[in-house]
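Feature request, filed as a ticket because there's no other form

It would be nice if the structure record came with a short human-readable summary line next to the tokens. Right now we just get the raw output. Example of a typical job, pasted below so the devs can see what we mean:
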Amino acid sequence: MNKDLTVGKPELVLWKFAIPLFGSVIFQQMYNIADSLIAGRYAGEKALAAVGNSYEITLIYLAFAFGCNIGCSVIVSQLFGAKKYADMKTAVWTTFISSGILCIVLTVLGFLLGPLLLYLINTPENVFADSLLYLNIYTAGLLFLFFYNIATGIFSAMGDSRTPFIFLAFSSAANIVMDYIFVKYYNMGVAGVAWATFICQGVSCMLAVFTIFRRLSRIKTDGKVVRFSVPMFHNLARIAIPSMLQQSFVSVGNIILQSIINVYGSGVMAGYSAVIKLNNLAITSFTTLGNAMSNFTAQNIGANKLERIKKGYRGGLLLVYIICIPVVALYLLYGENFMKFFMRDESLEAVATGVQFIGIVAPLYFVIGTKLMTDGILRGAGAMKQFMAATFMDLFLRVILAFILSGQFGSVGIWFSWPVGWILGTALSLYFYVSGSWKKGLFRTEK
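Raw output as currently delivered:
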């Protein structure tokens, strides 16, 4: 149910709010891993490469959905903290309407430009057809992706992290079962993986949206709620558009990196496809904790309780580091075992690629975890210029160094670009936080 994050001991309040969100992302990443695992084990290395190859393009869609999620979540959090419930409902309606229009545009563009994007990232001919098939099915489900992300953002904004956890737990379990049935027993290959995601995401979306509007109807407000407000749209856009741009540039950067990786053939592609899911399991977990920090920050800004944010931040960092310790240890000690788990034929090149990558980046999870938690404060305060600057520092360096180092050291040179980008990006985020620049011009929630 709804939870006021502006009362109680800040560290404990943040932990109780963040841990179910962490559980949610574990389930979400488990079904992403299952896509690769089942494709690799039951459909072969080429299918695994195709799923991983298309995944980098789907991150562009996720960037837009994430932007809508963050824009709505930050504004609704601030309005909920300020107890401006009529304005909060207006923000929700405005987000769904504007996001629905954006989603239709992206769906059309996705079908038209999908083949071109696959050509641009140097997709090998032997995985092109499967990559396009997976991408088209994924594109058909964009409305589910967008509305589900918005719904989870609203739940979090109102302090409810348990409901998204329940939805994701059931959805992820169903997705894994359907992946297995479609691919192993119906021999649907890459299409089976894609349709399983489409169906489960659709059901989760409809249940989440229904629950959101049912819950909002129980919150009493005076007067008629405005369904679409241009000033509110501007407020949402000031947060959402920078978030979309930031995530889109990250996705474009990942596509550029994928195009460099693709030059090394399907073995390296398959290894990267598998290990990037392991990496994303960690990074997405830290990102989700950062999102919890954003909601905590935004509610307390709405309630004008800025002194609670610093205490919550310390508690958030402690939680990140506690999670980092076992994750880093497991990846370093059992990286090869994890990679072989994905492979039907245990391709030596693919396994070696994954072990190399995770050995280089895993020790730096403590660094990137610090950055993402700090970014949560910047984003929750609406300090989007600082947030984007720190992110672009990381991305720019990764892409440039990948080009340079791959020419000198081959594929292993690409993996070294991650730690450098993370370190400098984290330094910049910490500077913005410590300097207090995020407090200047705090975002206003006027209607």
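Something like this underneath would help us a lot:
The chain is about 85% helix and 0% strand.
The two ends are 25 Å apart (CA to CA).
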